[in-house]
Structures
1.
Amino acid sequence: MPNDTDLYEKLTNSERLFEGKIINLRRDEVILPNGRTGMREVVEHPGAVAIVPLTTEGNVILVRQFRHPIGQVILEVPAGKLDSGEDPAACAVRELAEETGFTANTLRKLTSMYTTPGFSNEIIHVYLAEDLIESDKHPDEDEFINTEIYTPEQIHQMIISGELCDAKSLVALCLAGI
Amino acid sequence: MPNDTDLYEKLTNSERLFEGKIINLRRDEVILPNGRTGMREVVEHPGAVAIVPLTTEGNVILVRQFRHPIGQVILEVPAGKLDSGEDPAACAVRELAEETGFTANTLRKLTSMYTTPGFSNEIIHVYLAEDLIESDKHPDEDEFINTEIYTPEQIHQMIISGELCDAKSLVALCLAGI
């Protein structure tokens, strides 16, 4: 294990700038490893889950939705934010049902990852969902989502073409072995 | 191609909340597909590149650094923000040299992806860098980075164990075929 002690920064001040519906923003003052002062902008996020729902035929359920920050409709794996204090696995079951209408009898954790550790603390817990049972989907009132099913070959092609361009989805599909 | 027109939101107002060193924050009011009004918090980011530097031996150069938002030292592929108007490929060459001291004679684009399309417009352009030539590294004055070289087997193990937990790095290593 390499020596990391030469890399750490020490927090000396923190200014809260914004408290939002989904994210908060703060600006921290830190002492850098060379003793100088630096400023770090931090987006606070509650954390999230992403799910690869695999059908018995070996196909994957993806969701298509408009993402306002990028002004585009894109394809992603089902995903959603953690409610306060919510267990990530329970969140994965809930979000899968809300966005796709499917319940999973088998849920396997693939990894947990930071999406943007340079400016945010968002962590996404990634799951593979199998043995799916269909029921009704019931998205949040401000979510508008189309559900679509793709074969592994179609997914490979959309990764190569760049149509699949959402980082969490790329990680999730890769770690699921799709 | 499915019909996306039922998914789009229409911008009706935008409030600028913060202009920072790295990110800006705004809050937009939108008309949702059902005609109701919604609020969207948007973190504006200049975009970035991530690079998988592959040595002639088939090993990968990773960087270890402290990430203040998550309070941890983590391993990542070399990466960095685009300067204003900068070509992504030129940025990849520059960041690779700054963070690792290596220049690449062969650079291949792997994909472009959105890290967090739910709350930010950050796009990361991902490159594979080969035919490396070593020179001096010269990180930014507020960057403190250790450079380390790993075999593909070590990287697989760190993906399975969760030690490699940075989303852009996981995508980049996967698409590079590591």
2.
Amino acid sequence: MDNRPIGVFDSGLGGLTAVQKLMETLPNEDIIYLGDTGRVPYGGRSRETIIKYARQDIAFLTSFDIKAIVIACGTVSTTALGEIEKDYDIPIVGVVRPAVERAVQVTKNKRIGLIGTVASINSGAYDKLILQRLPEAEIFSAACPLLVPLVENGRISRGDIMIETAVSEYLAPIKARKVDTLILGCTHYPLIGDVIGDYMGEGVTLVSPGAETAAYVEQLLKKNDISAEKGRRAAHRYFVTDSIEGFSNAASLFLNQDVRGEVSKVDLNSF
Amino acid sequence: MDNRPIGVFDSGLGGLTAVQKLMETLPNEDIIYLGDTGRVPYGGRSRETIIKYARQDIAFLTSFDIKAIVIACGTVSTTALGEIEKDYDIPIVGVVRPAVERAVQVTKNKRIGLIGTVASINSGAYDKLILQRLPEAEIFSAACPLLVPLVENGRISRGDIMIETAVSEYLAPIKARKVDTLILGCTHYPLIGDVIGDYMGEGVTLVSPGAETAAYVEQLLKKNDISAEKGRRAAHRYFVTDSIEGFSNAASLFLNQDVRGEVSKVDLNSF
């Protein structure tokens, strides 16, 4: 038993979709969340810069006595995790492995689609792991740079011409290859799951890394015997690098709950 | 006569539209450009964070022996300039005043439209200065948070359904108020000047702060007798906070010329 918190970070707000799943799956676990809202988004930045920012994010989280780190960010998970995980002595979980495990389980025709940020797609991290687990898989991927700003501006509804246009343009080449599984490789994308699902059609299973990661973390805690005490009331703290007010307002979109009063601002320059 | 360079900065790439105008207007002036591509965009961030980043940008530029600073960024000009300009002893020019001077000259019906980032519109900086210069003006403004990501993703052409939809949604309330002048309060917007012009119609004059700022800087240099020697060959250097390669590729969109080989990377954490 281990009541120390789990550290979770994301480039900004998208990771809260994973936090919501973590809270549902692990209601007794304390969570410390860092959203680097002062430098969001990471998805279009270079690998070098993403690794630098990720190291600062982790340095901040490990300034607390935490038992594990969850990278609730597709971009960092794909681009930086492989490079940096060896440098820390607590478990670090990204969203790639849990999503890949799920995708290779559910695909029947072994044709898997993948969407994400430019950095995530360029990293090749999903492709590499899928092919390790299922060497005969065929992977069809697309970088979707406009989906994050569209989601963050609330263009998430069925019938919205901008999100419908973006989704259909980005996904047309993937749909044409008749995939039966699509990995939503960015924590923003579950918010437009219905628009994506409508476009892809009923025969395609959508895999949300946030949800899969929550289940994966539950197993990890059990396996390492570091789960928190059952029935305890968990505490959740949020740290951001831009204004608290902006975060609190936007967080409700991603988390479906009010986080006011639990949010602090932090300067990562010293980490 | 003063051959020292002019320092120019922007949150990222948009400021290059102003740099292009500066180069045309002032072909003998050396320019040092800083694009904070590792933290772009600024337009959705809090005032406090924008001021902090602007001070770092200026600290970097003033580490060179420069004679003036041009803030080629609508967001910094509106949100931070008033707060910080008193702290430096060389002239600092933003894009607001030059654009306002032009707008109050060209408007006949004294109904002026204004578009910009969330931070720019919230600052009220344009409104305040317009009303100082033309107290009977009526100002109709709209924050357009999706225009920057759309432009940066190349959605700039007439007929592109995403940019056409965004432009018409953002501008409909302004057009309905029958403005005869529209200030494009963000350095990205001149790249979609034709889409905006089509939507607003022939009777509306578009004011591009970058172009007005170049003319304003020319006057400032003359007035202070700090213009560079005529006929000299000017040098242009570019600094960025994310990868050089990403900048060089994207810069051609904004600058219409190849900047490869003149770009360096800088870390602003120490400024």
3.
Amino acid sequence: MFIKNCWYVVGWSGEVPQDGFLARTVINVPLALWRDSRGELHALTDRCCHRGAPLSMGRLEGNCVRCAYHGLKFDASGRCVEIPSQARVPANFKVASYPVIERHKWLWVWMGDPALADPALISDTHYVDDPAWASGGGHLHYDVNYLLVCDNLLDFTHLPFLHPTTLGGSADYAAVLPTVERIDRGVRVSKWVFDTDPPEYSKSYGAYAGKRVDRWMIYDFILPGILLMDSGMVPAGTGATARETGLRIDGLEFRGRQALTPETDKSTHYFFAHPHNFMIDQPEVTKRITDNLVIAFEEDRAIITAQQKNLDLDPSFKMLPMAADLALTQFRRVVQAALEQEILQVENLPSA
Amino acid sequence: MFIKNCWYVVGWSGEVPQDGFLARTVINVPLALWRDSRGELHALTDRCCHRGAPLSMGRLEGNCVRCAYHGLKFDASGRCVEIPSQARVPANFKVASYPVIERHKWLWVWMGDPALADPALISDTHYVDDPAWASGGGHLHYDVNYLLVCDNLLDFTHLPFLHPTTLGGSADYAAVLPTVERIDRGVRVSKWVFDTDPPEYSKSYGAYAGKRVDRWMIYDFILPGILLMDSGMVPAGTGATARETGLRIDGLEFRGRQALTPETDKSTHYFFAHPHNFMIDQPEVTKRITDNLVIAFEEDRAIITAQQKNLDLDPSFKMLPMAADLALTQFRRVVQAALEQEILQVENLPSA
Amino acid sequence: MFIKNCWYVVGWSGEVPQDGFLARTVINVPLALWRDSRGELHALTDRCCHRGAPLSMGRLEGNCVRCAYHGLKFDASGRCVEIPSQARVPANFKVASYPVIERHKWLWVWMGDPALADPALISDTHYVDDPAWASGGGHLHYDVNYLLVCDNLLDFTHLPFLHPTTLGGSADYAAVLPTVERIDRGVRVSKWVFDTDPPEYSKSYGAYAGKRVDRWMIYDFILPGILLMDSGMVPAGTGATARETGLRIDGLEFRGRQALTPETDKSTHYFFAHPHNFMIDQPEVTKRITDNLVIAFEEDRAIITAQQKNLDLDPSFKMLPMAADLALTQFRRVVQAALEQEILQVENLPSA
């Protein structure tokens, strides 16, 4: 069971072809995304109401979609406007349409009640196409339940162990547990470590090689599975001021944006961007940052996929909580509460 | 659940090797087909009664079959006639045998009560090896429930949309719905369209390029999933007489013969032949007709396979009926009635 | 359901790498096998108690195992001795450890109550590394329930049919059914055939080509699925004495050792060695013996895999017993009794 009333990232803008469809399944619902003649984006259930064929195998006709099987034509609202083999179109011939919004290269779709689809609930990812930042990004696919990937991003004590040569920091950095706060629809995880070695991946960017740094990682992780991270490092000794004032002069800074979107109960889309504020006019630096991130993500994927197999092998296995699980435990409660809230709404009962 | 008391096409004659077996599963029953020393065809359950090994992995010994595992020998009736490791063969050592008939290159097997296996119930496919006709053919395999393929063949309003460059006709041809009649064990679908453009595929056969034609398509679709089609075109203006008299002078005619045989609940064998009455001494024409048909069939398979995936993703999805579904709706009722009839027979209750 | 209180062969000694793990699943339990700094072997559940990641993806640290995900460290007893992100390790942080013993190149693991893990219950496989014998061996993997492979090894009337060109003997040899006795935790199968042709595979070893032999095959098949075979041939006429005295002068002798270990309900590990007492200083002979055995094993695997598919296709199919099934029927009873015995133990009821 998945939360419906929230914005899911369903793809990158560039994934919707000029004259065709992006077919992607979100929370077990097949979606067909396409642009009308004005370039406006639409999302329909990718399943013709007649016999269930995917609309994404059909074609665009102006601002409508023509099913490839028996030629039924649907407008952007999902209403069937033509059945070639009969004069009248019954009123129940329609497919669901979903609010979809394009922001900073990402496509966000609302899978629940359209009346509740408030664009203000879409997370701030403007760094992804902000000219003051440079960013690569991508899309991974995991054959696991999405909560296992959320868990991964909510407990970074795994960095020195799973990513020793990529993201993993020094032992003293790893040893500091972050503070965790409940925020609206999620949790905030914050950590400052002063006077530590810079992480392995940053050494190639010159400025900090052989020096000590003050380092921070502050992120919100909010429903359905959106990571908004502010991280970086400043010369050792300047961190305290930076923390107080928000000014991080001469800092290597990142604004990681990641989105986990359940595809099915056992598969997950993973969208990510990793804006940085330094050497932004050197595409090879941006590429290197992204490539290294993908190496680390593949380390994550390997162990999480193996973890899922272990869980499948013995469904009676119970995970044991430890202190570092605080954020993920909190987030799972947020998810659970949202699910229960939606069940209450569906049942038209007053929500507690 | 599948109908048992009917003839299923299980293969092409040439698929049974000289000294071996054709192993093929029909309605979830594994079958071993083989020829005895007189060339007579036999079909046994492809599962030794001892431990369940496939008999088709064994060998022929005269008019018997020797299991490759422990050497049990079965005669053509399925009776075990030798257990190498013991003197006596218990009476319950046997496998089921199935009536099987070879007609016009196709092998028909009766999966139900042998006493009811009336050869007169086998459909007329004589065009497949009639010297006045030429025919190619083949065997496809679908990973879908066979009813989805039946549906496809019972509503040809899909032709202009799914097969625009192969089978699809002109818009006016597509717009005419056929008449649908219930016949014994099936439905008859009939359609004449006068003064229309010839279909794309026929243009390369010369006679009709640049001309108008009268075109027809009349087929019976009968249990378990047999298509017997009479289709073609005559010069525009001659169709009315042809329809009345049955004489189709100078017509391009086809006698499509297709058989859908459920393999399992989610997979289907598709046997087809496409006899034509023109240029029958030009094998390259016959080959081209068949090749083009296979291109169209692959278009069918792609969308029906995607349709099956959509149905699997959301079993609660209900198809919506439209006018063009008349024949397939009728045929599904015929199937349902036959299944209920068999259940009544099994329960020894008087059939309503 | 599988027997737990018994020794399963989990691998060959050489499969545990110097600085890493052998990951192998036994009776649905993932195991991580490794050697500590003294070379001593250990087996732990290959699933971190924290989030379920496989320990075998981690690393060895002295005599401990470090999980690759969040760095939890476990000692050889399975006790968690360090959680990097917190000071205290709760007492319930542990994974199961299993008694594991290395004998004659095989690794034996006890999956049940460690208190019952009596090394005396490990079968005698000393021929595998006895200098008076030469032996090849290997490890196959079957996608079938392990009992189907046990069945195969408990009824050798399949030899002349399934292995006519490899292991299969002459018709008179095949026709003789062995005697079957119940022994402790298993069955003993014995057969002597006098004055017969040597089997096909033995002819290339010179001594017996063109001669007659007295031939025997005597084996114990004991829980969980261990084959201990004494087989061979002596010149015709000397067999009776050899049987009485145990002296088999000038015999071609084998001491086949095979172990079937369930991986999951539908998959099986098959470990085998085939010590022989002749030409032991000619590695190419040993290699040829092993290679030929593997050819025969692949014949077994092909038909048993097909058998499993047939059983899956129709779970209502019931096997029919015949005289040659005596040993396998007895062994299945031994398995069933052991399972029932363990259930009684778990329920703390007095065992009948």
4.
Amino acid sequence: MTTIGLLNPGEMGSMVGAAVRSGEARVLWAGEGRSAATHKRASDAGLEDAGSVAAVARASDVILSVCPPHAAVDLAKEVAALRFAGIYVDGNAVSPATAREIGGIVEKGGATFVDGGIIGPPPVKPGSTRFYVSGSGAERVAQLLTAGPLQAIVVPGGAGAASAVKMAYASWTKGSSALLLAVCAMASAEGVEDSLVREWKISQPDLSARAEGASKSNAKKAWRFIGEMEEIAATYAAVGLPDGFHLGAAEIYRRMAIYKDGPTPSLAEVLRALTPRRPA
Amino acid sequence: MTTIGLLNPGEMGSMVGAAVRSGEARVLWAGEGRSAATHKRASDAGLEDAGSVAAVARASDVILSVCPPHAAVDLAKEVAALRFAGIYVDGNAVSPATAREIGGIVEKGGATFVDGGIIGPPPVKPGSTRFYVSGSGAERVAQLLTAGPLQAIVVPGGAGAASAVKMAYASWTKGSSALLLAVCAMASAEGVEDSLVREWKISQPDLSARAEGASKSNAKKAWRFIGEMEEIAATYAAVGLPDGFHLGAAEIYRRMAIYKDGPTPSLAEVLRALTPRRPA
């Protein structure tokens, strides 16, 4: 029996936790101080509340870190301070450099580090979601991860490689969505949105629907894309590529972060939020 | 009989010139000091060589400016200095602010200004290409422009509106192509291109072909996209949107400008040119 500690059961984490539960693996989480909504999500996913992060670290052979990218380093520091000596898998959307930094932190605490990156929606049905892993220990972790609907794929190249796959993938999906929303916001601010939409009907027939989709599916999640875009920008800068695309995308998602807890806004509302300043 | 001066017959300009020639309109250009290739293009398009820009301005009722965006202001200054008093149409990929600046320059010289923006390839067959126009005089110019395969569309909103349509449109097409090439360059620099391409096969099945296409169709034209991306960045900044997407795109096309005169490079060559610096 393997014991896996899942930190933390957010929208993605809870489903990853459910996916790795099996006859051979139980999954713990740390419920102390967490909201009722998180408790419900974790319990629905069949995760066992061990109480504190310290209790999770004490009882677990493997810790899976699945959290918003801006929280990934602090979580690693917390676990390292507990002298966790099992396998620490960082599955977050962070740059290769941040992944290696996290690796250094948890290894200093005594753990074995495995770099990871998740591509796809929270895994409910098989085939939707891949968990990329790299580094020593990746093969063993890959086996654990594939108990349920998740597919694990080992990336050659050591720690940082799995994160690089995730960064490259998201740099298109979330970067291009932000760009498309910026395009519409610009046309709207300049008063030419109707002309643009008519031109798109002729020569880019999928773009209007795609802009609607980018607004609808990202508005409530935008708050946690900010850190991810900043990690991608850092990834680009590290290889000498311009970081402006994703610093721009971070700013777009920052302006959409107001929609975190409310109802899903219309595209027109989002475009107004993106351009508070209008041309003279 | 209307006389139209076409400045200058590049790849786009020569075909625009051919498209506006008709029983009621002749088209002049200024061959002085131009290359043999430009002379051949203009002559193939049925344009009449009037010699100098001064001679074109003297003889023309309408001047169409179709040139790389970085040259648009200087061309307007040259024509204004000649006291051209006809209709000056700027059809270039410039920001609304630059379009209005050009309008001010040529109006000071005595001309009537019409803002324009061309969307589509050089117009050879009907339906491929639209010439957006705005400002007073746009209706009259629209009639002239539709003699051949070009379609003219009047945009409400005065000078700058046609340019805004063009900027918004190109900010997606050329901006997203640059982003996609940057994505591939990053993955390649990090050594995970194979993993990315395999993931794309599963979840983004058109992207690999699209990256190949973005490289192939833009490599030799990249030199003239630099100024266009900078004009788009300025357009975004003017309405308070992040300019980083298109400053990034300008940098991508700047690194591809080396392919202007040579053969079309492979995608792998382009990706190497985009990331001269590799991670440590």
